[in-house]
Amino acid sequence: MELKGISWLGTRTKNIEEMVKFCTEKLGLKPVILVPEMAVFVLPNGDVFEIMAPEIRQRQPELEGLECPKAEFLVDDVKTARADMEKLGVEFVGPVHTSEKHAWTNFRAPDGHLYGLTDDQPLPIKKK
Q1: Which of 125, 90, 57 is nearest to 117 (CA)?
Q2: 3-state SS string over the chain?
Q3: pLDDT at residue 79, as a whole number
Q4: Maximum CA pair distance of the chain?
Q5: Quick one: residue 18, left, alpha or beta (phi over 0 = left, psi -120 to 50 = alpha)?
Q6: Which domains are present in the chain?
Q7: What is the mean pLDDT of each run of 10 residues along the chain (128 residues)?
Q8: What pTM was computed for the model?
Q9: Distance between CA 126 and CA 89 in Å, rounded?
């Protein structure tokens, strides 16, 4: 397994409207997805920053206790990387999630926080 970068950073907050405003007005980001419980921003290099409201937890129960930002490391294949890490004793939380364009999974590190693995850039960069 080889880590290729950090391609996704997500955070849960009760202040989602203020965070979206901060990201658009102070950081100059444009959302590619904007719904009441989630905002997704794609940076020019393809990295993704996602803001989630607390109620988003119904989709991924393992994120229910998320109290800090969560990063996902980019790998070639999530299932293979997870199997390699499990052999090394890494604790994974929840299943491998899949969508049309990528897969991701969550693991707990010694600092007690959740991190993840992902195998693709989840969203294309939208150019105007």
Answers
A1: 90
A2: CCCCEEEEEEEECCCHHHHHHHHHHHCCCCEEEEECCEEEEECCCCCEEEEECHHHHHCCHHHCCCCCCEEEEECCCHHHHHHHHHHCCCEEEEEEEECCCCEEEEEECCCCCEEEEECCCCCCCCCC
A3: 94
A4: 46
A5: alpha
A6: 5-118 (3.10.180.10)
A7: 85 87 88 91 88 72 69 91 93 90 87 84 49
A8: 0.71
A9: 39
